[in-house]
Amino acid sequence: MTGVEPASSGGPLEPLIGRNCALDLFDRALCAARAGQPSMLEFVADPGCGKTRLLRELAVRAGQAAVPAFAAAGRDSERAGALLTALVEPTAAPAGHLPGPVAGAVVVLLDDLHLAPPAVAALLARLAQAPPAGLLLVVTYRPRQMAGWATAALGGVVQLNRRTFPLSPLDPAGVAALLGLPDGRAGQRVHRLSGGVPRYVLAYRPEALDGAVAAQRGLPDELPFEVTAAVQLDVDALEADQRHMLEAVSVCAEGFEPTLAGALARRDPAATSDLLDGLVAADLLRTDPALEPTLRFRHEVDRAVVYRSLSPGRRRALHAVAAGILRDLGHPVTRYAEHLCAGGQCADPAAADALIEAAESARTPRLDAIRWLTGVRRLLPDAGPSDRRRIRLDFATADALVGAGRLRQARTLLQDLSRRELPEEDQQVRALVARARVERLLGRPFDAYALLLPRLDAPAGTRARFDLTVEAAVAGALCGAAGAGQHACDLGRLADQLDEPGCRTTAAVVRCFVAAHVDCGFPAEEALGRASSEVDALADDELARHPDLLALLAWAEHLLERDRSALHHLDRALEICCRAGLVALTPWLLVGRCAVTCRLGSLDRALSEGEDAEEVAVAMGVEPLVGMARAHRAIAVAWRRGPAAARQLAETAVLDAATRRPNWYDGVSQRVAVRLRFLAGDRVGAAPALLRACGGAELDQVEASGRACWASSLAEMTHRSGRRDEALHWLAVAGRHAQRLRLRGQSAMVRISRARLTLDADPRGAAELAGAAADSFADIGWRMDEASARLVRARALCDLREWTAAEVELAEARRIADLVGSPPLRRAVAGVQSRAAGAAGRRPDSAARGELTLTRREWDIARLVAAGASNAEAAEQVYVTVKTVEAHLTRIFRKTGVSSRAALAALLATGAVNYRGPA
Questions:
Q1: Which has the higher per-residue pLDDT, 843 or 459?
Q2: What whole-number distance in Å separates Cα of residue 377 and Cα of residue 398?
Q3: What percent of the chain clears pLDDT 70, i.e. is strictly above it?
């Protein structure tokens, strides 16, 4: 075609995300067009889904295939008409626009067909009846805005091979890719906010949202120009009255009814109905059948663009009108609180009380509450410290600050409240409990417990004693206080005295959490199921008022080996926290998800959750949780890249721990760091360091539910150091703790440690122990531990020369390694397979194959190194020190005449190196 300007991509294009299916469909249609077959593609999507961006990509692809492409938009009726006329009636095309006869394939790209006038639709219908050979017609449109004549034109397409393809919103992975983020919670957050629509995704740029804490923050102050311009283009196409109505209702972020819209725009009901119908037809407003007759903007981004275009004076006036109407209609205060604040009415005492009441609601996002309360505090006249409104305002502000993660600001305000002479005893207790909770959330449970302990024996009402005891029990468990168990026991009695279902549920959850940490004689296993059922029965609004419940329950379930239930409750807690704008618990919940998903073998998710947890904890300034997040992430890194790679990350987790008082968070980080250092091959002083991190011989700093595991680790460390009697002592300690708790995972940990210690002396017993441990790990879903146990069993079976059974265990371990994506685990399987092959006599006979022979130990190390294992990983597999591996490698290189690992791998592949016999 000539005479009509070809389509242009408009310069370099950014990568197109999530549209591979659409591109494949176009490529196939283009091939058909080059073969002379005419066809038509329809890409259908809501505004912002990237239809125009897709057409630019298609123009580039057509150019790369040397096929001419011509483009027009529905709103540019002249160019669109010229293009279609040139195809339908070449000789009748307007002067200067004659393309001439079509020769070969040609691509015509028609964007925004829903905006095309009837004349263009008529031409499209004619073209569809007699299309030129080789024509590929591509159209895009918004289905909600398609006019009847355009729909009729498409309905008459019978001569073209027609395909309709809906452009769906991006999935969370696509959102992350569009923003250049790793596939994790950040992408999921933006996906939830944007619905996956690319235009709206770009409005939530992470750099404007200040990282992971931005889950609670909504839109940034400055929207990207391309987003604002695209929305403004739709608004500018409206008639003046429609635009005036749209601007008036833009102050209603939660939606509006026609009555409110008419009052804001000062229109009578009939005119209001017509204007709203026009805005719905333009797809700027939408109705929700479940909330009829409420209307909303099609997306919050569209509302924000319109709202921010208003002058400040008009905004205030509209908000004031909306507040008055909603109040007079009897709506709850949470519905019109934003209008009161934005309308500048905070100085009115009645309005101030209404804003405080709204801020206290669990449904109110915490950042909104802070903004409202700040306005009240700024505009209300000064009041004395004992003024009731002032006290209520301070408590509401403190709660909002805590929820938003501004813990140090909340602590300062609560300290001021605690020093005042508050008129009511319950207020004094509330201030003390809130202050202690802030200390606990800051990772300082010892300080929290020290605040509460003197007050526990002071006279107080039952409710006040219950609240004090709840916080004391939780803080005491986290700092290892001896009285935590007694506090947990007292909770049941206090809950019975109060006779409130909510108190009983709280008591049950807290007692389970404490029982996971300290020995208190409480049957946690039985109570945990009941507590879980009671919490599941609570509505989200109730849990938003008591957000600690889900967090404590989930951690208790994780520690007591109910990981799948813990994951469910962690997910629900995060959803509630996100919806209510509660940031304070977010790092603790994310660390829990990291720990659970890693134990269940979802390494990618564990790494992502750990990174998010660290980011939020850093933003909040909670150093112990920063360390704990790094430690749990290091465990996932060890399974993904090996202990040596994880060691440095784990050691950064405990850099500042020595400057803080002992607490559970730092204890976990220290133990993980020591364990990874040991697994990386640095075993000097590892056992004493782990013993210190555990709190000494009684393991006081280890949660009760994990003492069997860490005592087993001490047994393995001391055994490797040659201290057999000490190893047997720790093995006995681990057995006693496992028997007391009767947790399957802890009992399996003891069995596998016993199997490792007896592997050389009693391979039959070791095989039985490792098999029982592997079965237990499989039942509770601990994939990584199951694979490790199967490797130990395979080694024992090889020593017993039971090759078939060993191969079964190795195959299962290899399957798990592939399933979770763990190269170190694959190398460990390869190492045991190498040993099995050698022990079975499957290596080449040295006498027949030449002079390059190695001892059994040299052969094992050579095979591991050739498979990619580091010295530390090889040492771990063959149970020697790193220095021993280095010495063996020196001899291997000398014998074989090579000087690098790559050369050694190549030499082994030729079969020229052989196994000589026992080491």
A1: 459
A2: 13
A3: 91
Number of other residues whose CB lies within 10 A of the CB of residue 294 = 15
DSSP 8-state assignment for residue 721: T
Helix (H), strand (E), coil (C) string for 36-62: CCCEEEEEECCCCCCHHHHHHHHHHHH
Here the tokens at position 228 are: 């604002």
Q: Do residues 567 and 545 touch, judged by C-beta distance below 8 A?
A: no
Percent of the chain with pLDDT over 90: 50
Q: Phi, psi (5° rounding) for residue 692?
A: -65, -40
Query: Which residue intervals of 102-224 are DSSP H helices?
Result: 118-129, 148-155, 172-179, 185-194, 198-203, 206-209
For residue 97, what pLDDT is reported? 43
Say yes or no to pLDDT of 850 above 50: no
Length of the chain: 919
Gap between the Cα atoms of 410 and 333, Å rounded: 25
Q: How far apart are CA 404 and CA 216, in angstroms?
A: 8
As a whole number of angstroms, the distance between CA 43 and CA 23 comes to 11
- Evaluated on CA atoms 903, 909, 915, 919, the torsion sign reads positive
- What are the pLDDT digits (tens) for 869-893? 888 888 888 778 888 888 888 888 7
Whose CA is closest to 889, among 879, 878, 877, 899? 899
CA pair distance 660, 867, nearest whole angstrom: 43
CB atoms within 10 A of CB 819: 12
Instruction: Give the DSSP per-residue string, 839-881.
Output: HTT-SPBHHHH-S-EEEHHHHHHHHHHHTT--HHHHHHHHT--
Residue type, 432: L
pLDDT at 310: 94
Q: What is the CA radius of gyration of the chain?
A: 35
Other CB atoms within a 10 A radius of the CB of residue 807 amount to: 16
Contact present, 370 and 216 (Cβ < 8 Å): no
Query: Distance between terminal CA atoms of the chain?
Result: 81
Q: What is the mean pLDDT of the chain?
A: 86
Residue 304 pLDDT greater than 60, yes or no: yes
Contact by Cβ (8 Å): 617, 228: no
Asked whether the predicted pLDDT for residue 798 surpasses 80, the reply is yes
d(CA 545, CA 524): 25
Q: For residues 875 and 882, what is the distance between their CA atoms, to the nearest angstrom?
A: 5
The C-alpha torsion from 175 through 179 and 181 to 186, rounded to 10°, is -60
Angle, CA 672 vertex, CA 667 and CA 676 arms, to 5°: 150
Single pTM value for the model: 0.78
Contacts of 888 (CB under 8 A, 6+ apart): 857, 858, 861
Contact 334, 361 (CB under 8 A): yes
3-state class (DSSP) for residue 7: coil
Q: Please count the CA atoms within 13 angstroms of the CA of 526 that sit on its side-chain side.
A: 3
Q: What is the pLDDT of residue 843?
A: 39
Backbone angles phi, psi at 306, to 5 degrees: -65, -45
Please identify which residue in the block is written with the tokens 């802070």.
370
The whole-number pLDDT of residue 915 equals 66
Smallest CA-to-CA distance from 751 within 730, 728, 733, 774 is with: 774
C-alpha pair distances (Å), 552 with each of 116, 448, 451: 59, 17, 21
Q: In the sheet where 39-44 sits, what is the strand order?
A: 69-73, 106-111, 135-141, 39-44, 161-166
Determine the 3-state secondary structure of 138 from DSSP. Answer: strand
Select from 238, 240, 232 the least CA-distant residue to 282: 238
State the chain's maximal CA–CA distance in angstroms.
104
Among candidates 674, 879, 872, which has minimal Cα distance to 766? 879
Closest CA to 6 of 64, 56, 71: 71
Instruction: Look at residue 208 in the predicted model and tell me its pLDDT.
Output: 41
Would you call 141 helix, strand, or coil by DSSP?
A: strand
764: Cβ contacts below 8 Å, ≥ 6 apart: 796, 800
How far is C-alpha 136 from the chain's CA centre? 43
**629/612 Cα distance (integer angstroms):** 9
